[in-house]
Design goal:
2 domains, two-stranded antiparallel sheet, alpha+beta, globular, 16% strand, 50% helix, Heat Shock Protein 90, 5-stranded mixed sheet, 7 strands
């Protein structure tokens, strides 16, 4: 029997597929209306945001994946709910950086988790450790990893138990997805007197 994570991926892929056609049709209709001179700036912006949000969810929750480069990561980050309050800082990553599909998918799920970790806004900063690993840091007022996040990373049973209705929780989902994709997640102890949430290390294991 397929794993629960795989079943969730297949369901997400199907939903994104079924929604893709109507959303594309809506975007096309809005573009034609704007081209004909209709004053629909808010509707056009909402249509663009909806299309980009669908692309983000398909890449984060669906099956498969491709290498994730910085332009695509930056573009998809604009579709994160509350993106106007959260800044993605990629300045420490070398130009031309890209991530393998497994690591890229976990990073996209991290983007979706960030608004929960930064309730009053702030920044997510990424830096490269080596070819297989990236370090993620949170900064901002009340910045903190969601309750139980550290537990989920080391206890798959606790992560599965936390995925209960009615609210889909991204912390345990991200932990289970990373484990399935062969990406090890570790919260590191801050060095010296560093303040703020512990940095999160994402490392793609051999074959992951």
């Amino acid at each position: 029997m397929p794993s629960p994570v795989l079943l969730a991926e297949l369901l997400a892929a199907r939903l994104c597929h079924d929604l893709g056609g109507p959303i594309a049709g809506l975007a096309g209709a809005v573009e034609l209306a704007v081209a004909d001179g209709a004053d629909l700036p808010e509707i056009a912006a909402a249509s663009t945001e909806l299309g980009l949000r669908l692309r983000l969810l398909r890449a984060a929750f669906g099956t498969g994946g491709i290498r994730l480069d910085l332009p695509r990561l930056t573009e998809l980050a604009q579709a994160v709910p509350g993106a106007d309050r959260v800044r993605l800082d990629l300045d420490l990553l070398p130009r031309g950086t890209s991530f393998a599909p497994s690591l890229g998918r976990v990073l996209l799920n991290l983007l979706l988790l960030v608004p929960e970790a930064l309730p009053r806004g702030g920044a997510l900063s990424l830096s490269r450790v080596d070819e297989a690993a990236v370090l993620a840091r949170l900064s901002g007022p009340r910045a903190a990893w969601p309750n139980g996040f550290a537990t989920y990373l080391g206890d798959p049973a606790a992560a599965r138990a936390a995925l209960v209705p009615p609210r889909f929780r991204l912390g345990p989902w991200m932990a289970l997805l990373a484990a399935q994709l062969g990406v090890r997640l570790s919260l590191l102890l801050p060095a010296g007197r560093a303040r703020g949430p512990a940095p999160l290390l994402l490392r793609a294991e051999a074959g992951g």
